[in-house]
Amino acid sequence: MNDGLNIDLHTHSSCSDGSLSPAELVARAAAAGVQVLALTDHDTVAGLEEAQRAAGERGLQLVPGVEISASWRAQAIHVLGLWIDPVSPPLCASLRAQADLRRARMREMCARLTKLRLPGAELLATVQAVPGVPTRTHLADALVAGGHVDTVDAAFRKYLGKGKRAHVAPAWPAVAVVVGWICAAGGVAAIAHPHRYALSAGARRRLLGDFAAAGGTVLEVVSGGNSAQHIDTCATLAVNFGLQGSVGSDFHSPHAWNPLGRSLKLPECVTPVWRNFGL
Fold first, then answer.
1. From CA 100, how far away is CA 82, in angstroms rounded?
2. 220 vs 55, 92, 115, 247, CA distance in Å?
């Protein structure tokens, strides 16, 4: 149920770990027929100004957003902030702190790679030369470019994934704290791709209970690549916890599995979050 609109509320640009600049992302979305687009880069709003200019030129409505890394019971959780004020001083200060956490984590991962007889300092320099906040995907790309692994997936399987030799557990703020940042910036908070977390069904329900109690109001019911079964499960969770629904491709690259402009239809039983914003 998208009220006749082509809506995508979860995408990434080169300001985090996407391959397209914000303007290129908007152009590609417009060409794919997307009418309402959210740019939700990881822990940064740096691309929103460029994206807004491009959206104005192409007649596309841009939703200012961000995807913030959080923690719940030692599990990393991603929380989307949608319709945020991107110049909110408290939010900007919090995102600077997130970027500092990312840089410290990157230095430690590269130090561990050095201990594994890989060129950690060189890999760190490669990551630091890339614009935007550093992510593990950037480090995986550097490992591929240096010929140390064949693919990004191999980099995660061998070195960077949870429990692997160069993995560093992140010290992200609690989900409730992140929800507070988003609400203070005038936005709505959404749990991103809820089916991807290594949680039991009971733990996922407890997460959503804590999220709602903290002021979170939205669940990303339809996310790039999730199955019809996942969509049905997420729709039921949204209804049971009184959460509105969102849809998003989680687009990163034209060469990935989650293209812009694909059919992202919210089930009829779920109230769309965009209804709050006159869409």
1. 23
2. 23, 24, 40, 6
- Close Cβ partners of 136 (under 8 Å, ≥ 6 residues apart): 109, 156, 160
pLDDT digits (tens, 9 = 90+) for 158-214: 999 989 999 999 899 999 999 999 999 999 999 999 999 999 999 999 999 999 999
Measured between alpha carbons, how far is 150 from 152 in angstroms, rounded to an integer? 7
Label residue 222 exposed, middle or buried (CB < 10 Å: 0-12, 13-18, 19+).
buried
| pTM of the model as a whole | 0.92
Listed by start position, the domains of the chain span 103-160
Q: Are strands 188-191 and 75-82 parallel, antiparallel or unpaired?
A: antiparallel
Can you tell me the distance from the alpha carbon of 273 to that of 251, in angstroms, rounded to the nearest whole number? 20
Q: What is the pLDDT of residues 128-153, one digit of tens each?
A: 998 888 999 999 999 999 999 999 99
